[in-house]
Design a protein that fits this description.
16 strands; 55% strand; alpha+beta; 7 helices; 16-stranded mixed beta sheet
Length: 371
């Protein structure tokens, strides 16, 4: 009887010791740096290096110091990344619970120049062929089996630089704070940062500030938004107001308004030659949309009736093409346009003035109205 009792006890002790040894080895810096990170880098066609990494499966936490990540288009360095989740909630409560996410002092450089785009596209095609083609995932209009809770989300001092041919767009000292967001609960989201658009010796600087209250549903799709933001570029201040209200039966109404939109800073940075010296402004852009199911914002399963009104257009291109317009109003089904590339249902143009001048031509249209 004593032998029969001792043998299982010895086996259990050996198994426990083996599990502890495997756990300590699998979560050790040596194992992660030597085996896990190289596999991830190979699968993602990237280079990954870390100075220090601490992982605790029991506490569902990871702390990474001096993370370097690079691809043909992107390089990133972050001083500190902290992730703390709850494995118990995931396994037994069907809940993705991020208890803490901190990203500190991060620099991200993205190169969208034609040469780099060609290299990145070729690499993506290679990976796609290795995986046997792409797989499309269809979104279903139903609740996810997992609830989602995000807590203590903090991005501190994020610096992003996007190079596009001869222009560079930068976001510096960007900070984002989300104390808590989960289904059916209102959440405050605050962000701010510095902006700059650079082309050659020209540099336009400004900032972005945003204060929002957001509520999401069980699919983690926003069902309530009350957001006020302000962009400043050079001497131009551009306010942005966004509102989304969903009723208990999931019908929704959405509105967006941008005012005093200066064209020149964006044209210099984003519009290719020879049209990148476009000047002028747009007084306001107003968009309204409504539908019978808030989930259609993702699934596009039902019509989303949308109207857009652009007022006070005054734009010049290449110093020889001028457009002035009191307002343009268009109505369309957003779902059909996204899924089927359909045309708007109606376009109404009020008081359009167009003038084109070159060495041999002069074309002028005044007070054009189109319904």
């Amino acid at each position: 009887m004593k032998k029969k009792i001792k043998i299982p006890a010895i086996i259990i002790i050996v198994l426990l010791v083996a599990i502890i040894v495997l756990y300590n080895f699998g979560t050790s810096q040596y194992c992660i740096k030597k085996f896990i990170l190289p596999i991830v880098a190979e699968k993602t066609n990237s280079k990954i290096e870390v100075a220090e990494i601490k992982v605790s499966l029991l506490r569902s936490a990871a702390i990474i110091s001096d993370l370097n990540y690079s691809t043909p288009q992107l390089t990133m360095h972050t001083e500190k990344l902290v992730i703390n989740t709850n494995i118990y909630d995931l396994l037994f409560k069907h809940k993705i619970n991020i208890q803490k996410f901190i990203l500190k002092n991060t620099r991200l450089n993205l190169d969208l120049s034609p040469k780099n785009n060609a290299i990145a596209t070729a690499k993506k095609e290679e990976l796609k062929q290795e995986k046997g083609g792409s797989t499309k995932i269809m979104l279903k209009n139903q609740s996810t089996p997992y609830k989602v809770s995000l807590n203590n989300i903090s991005i501190e001092d994020l610096n992003v630089s996007v190079q596009n041919s001869d222009t560079k767009t930068s976001i510096n000292n960007f900070n984002l704070r989300i104390p808590n967001i989960e289904s059916e609960k209102a959440c405050n989201i605050n962000l701010d940062g510095d902006l700059s658009l650079t082309k050659g010796n020209k540099c336009v600087k400004g900032f972005i500030k945003s204060r929002s209250v957001v509520t999401v549903n069980n699919n983690f799709i926003p069902k309530g938004i009350n957001s006020t933001s302000e962009f400043k570029l050079g001497n131009s201040k551009i306010p942005l107001i966004v509102s989304l209200i969903a009723s208990k039966d999931e019908t929704f109404e959405f509105s967006l308004k941008i005012s005093d939109l200066a064209i020149e800073p964006f044209a210099n940075a984003f519009i290719p030659k020879p049209y990148n010296n476009t000047k002028g402004k747009i007084n306001s852009i107003k968009i309204k949309a409504s539908g019978k199911d808030i989930n259609d914002l993702v699934t596009m399963a039902n019509p989303i009736n949308t109207t857009a009104i652009i007022s006070g257009i005054d734009i010049s291109l290449q110093d020889n093409f001028y457009i002035k317009n009191k307002s343009i109003k268009t109505a369309f089904d957003l779902s059909s346009i996204i899924k089927n590339n359909a045309f708007p249902n109606s376009i109404i143009i009020n008081d359009l003035d167009v003038k084109y001048i070159n060495s041999s031509q002069f074309v002028k249209v005044e007070n054009l109205n189109l319904n």
